[in-house]
């Protein structure tokens, strides 16, 4: 489609970048931090060891100086639940003090802090005490944590994200405090119940934020992988629409409408895995909708109809290749992939933004988007042209959507600085700033600005004029 383009992104547009506490901070046992679920999970040797991560806990000052030099207008980060409430109940002043320093330094530089309340880092103690997100008690625990954050930081932090990628919490057993072996028929029901509790918790926390913080903006960060039909066969079109319902709209409909997506409800009914639902909780959701929707976009999927004529209980979490009788994911030769097999499809970002806006009419903020790649240091420099291409192509899609009038308030690339990838370790780098360590060797952890750093600095300065 041809349309006249805006020359530059609006001057209010929040160019930014993101991190999450457990992936970047390290300092696992410092400052009174308590144990989180991922500290307990079995480690893939050298890979998912978050004890030092990028050592941001000790180098936060140098890092924020670099974010300022990069020109960030917004910095998205999460506040570690276990640093602030080590046992999920009592407040640790040292934890609050750590984030005070970060928030004050950002604000001093005129960088808007965007805080994720919960990004995969759950206090183990709450799982031991009552089963974490599998219990309705988790709603109160999460509300209490949010209350501490809003009361303490609400004078300086106006932008908040409730839960990061809920779909990837509930469908990954260890993020719920369950073992891999516990995945099975019963797990299906637990997934749906946890999802529902998290939606109730989100609505309560949105309500609380609106009561406590003047001019607050709060919303969830979801991860749509918008499906494109594998062919012109209408069955593939229906399969791809259904995939979208079961992969992200099933959460967003509860957040933004206080209703279950009909396809999602029927899916649960057929499998006898419906959660326990209270009318007044749905009402609470309908009355406390987000101010904006955070979109984490990395990849899309190509989807075909599944010919199987039966209902299967999957018994396991996310990334299912086939949902019997509903859809199956297929290869798409038109779409290149990263070294980790993730589809690279910038247009998918436009599809997600257009679709989400058309369904909910809420402003959107891209909360994550980036390329995980192996980076090589050559004579002290990192020539990451592949990352520049990836980010430029995605930013062009955003410029296009802005030109069409879609309300997009900002863009946070993943990630501001190299950090430990959730599942793949340090080899899979995303940052504008290189951190000198590998999966197996900590080295000196020195910071090096990559070529993409200077490129993004220019994009921000000229507000995307050359894109
Ligand atoms: C998102 C998460 O799922 O994707 C991040 O919010 C994560 O925490 C990012 O790091 C990239 O995924 P991965 O597996 O490459 O680290």
Automatic annotation (TrEMBL):
Catalytic residues as annotated in Swiss-Prot or TrEMBL: 368 (nucleophile)
One GO molecular-function entry: beta-glucosidase activity
Homology family: Belongs to the glycosyl hydrolase 1 family.
Protein name (Swiss-Prot/TrEMBL): 6-phospho-beta-glucosidase
Listed InterPro entries: GH, GH_1_N_CS, Glyco_hydro_1, Glyco_hydro_1_AS
Pfam families assigned: Glyco_hydro_1
A single cellular component GO annotation: cytosol
Keywords, in A-Z order: Glycosidase, Hydrolase
Natural source organism: Enterococcus termitis
GO process terms (BP): carbohydrate catabolic process
Statement: the UniProt record of this protein carries the keyword Hydrolase: yes
